[in-house]
Structure prediction request, 356 residues.
Amino acid sequence: MRSYRRRLLLLPALLCVLASLAARPADGKGTPGDNDTGTDGDAVLSAQVVQLYADAARATQRYEAGRLEAEAQRARAQRIEALLERERKEIGVLREDLGRIARAQYRTSGGMPLTAQIILAKSPEQLMRGQHVFSQTNLAVGNAIEKSRRAEKRLATDEAKAATAWQTLEKRNAALAELKKGIEQKLEQARWQLQGQAEASVAAGSCSGAVRLDQPKTDFTSEWVAPVESYELSAGFGSGGLRWANRHTGQDFAVPIGTPVRAVGDGRVVKVSCGGAFGMEIVLRHADGYYTQYAHLAAVAVDQGERVDTGQWIGQSGTTGNSTGPHLHFETRVTAQMGSAVDPVPWLAARGVPLG
Prediction:
C-alpha cells in the first residue's frame, strides 16, 4: 500500500479542520478525543483479529503447500502399489515356470530321477545325454528359484515403502487438519469478542475512537479497489426484503467478522457513527464529489476529518445495527446522507473495479 500522504497544512486549511472538529456532534457520530487510538482493549483485540487473519493466510499457504505435497505423496504411493501388483504377477509367473520345469523334468525322465538314469546308463552316449539334461535342468531350476527369491525380496522391500508412504500421508493430512482447526477456533473466538465490543459501542451510541491497524505495505497501481479483498456478493442494490423500508440501498459483501475493510479510493472521512440501523459506519468523500459508505462494522480504524488513500484499511467488518449476519454494507452516494445512493456495482465497474 502506498505510504499514507502526510501533507503540510497551511493556515487556512488548519482553520477549516479546527472548525470541523469543533462542529462535530456530541452524540457519538464521529467522536473526537485526545485518545486517537481508542481503548487499549479495542486496539489489542482488533490487532489480534488482524494478526490472526495474517496467521490464517500464512497457515493457508502452508496448508495448500502441504496439500499439494500430500497429493504428490499419494501419487507416489499409488505408483508403488502399481509396482507391487506387477511384482506379484511376476512372482506368480515365476512359480508357474518352476511348476512347468518340474513337470517337464518328470516327463523327460520317465518318472525316474536323473541321477538314477545316469547310474543305469548303458552307453557313454546315454551317460552324456543324462549329464547334459541333468545340468540344464539344474541350471533352469536354479535360475528360476533365484529370480523368484529376488522378486520376493524386492516385493517385501517395496511393500514396506508403500506402507511408510501411506503412513506419512496420513500423518501429514492429520497435521494439516489440526492446523486448520486451531486457526479457525482462535479466529472465531476473536471475531465474536470484537463483535461484542462493537455492539457495546453501538448500544452506547458512541465510538471509542480509531483503532490503528498494522496493515501490510502494498502499492496499488489502480486508483480504485473493491472495499474488501476477498468476498461473496449477497444482497444487491434495489433488492427487496423485510429488513428495508423500501429497497436495498447498497451492495452487500458477505465476509467474516473482522475482515479488513478498505477505502475504495482516495478521500476524506466525513462521518464516523456508532448508532442506528447501520450500526458502526464510515462515510468517505472522494475527489470526484461522490461519497462511499461502509456499514455494519465491528471496528473503525480512522477518525472523522482524516485523509485516506486507496486500499487503506479503514475498519473491520462485523454485523452491528440492522444486520442478520456478518457482512459489509457498501453504498455509493451523491451526498453524504442516506437517500442519495446510486448502484455501486456499475459505479465501481466504470472505475475499473468489476465485482464478481
Q: What stands out?
A: The two ends are 23 Å apart (CA to CA). The beta strands are 232-233, 251-254, 260-262, 267-274, 280-286, 291-300, 307-308, 313-317, 328-333, 341-342. Helices lie at 11-22, 40-108, 114-119, 124-204, 344-349. The first strand starts at residue 232 and ends at 233.
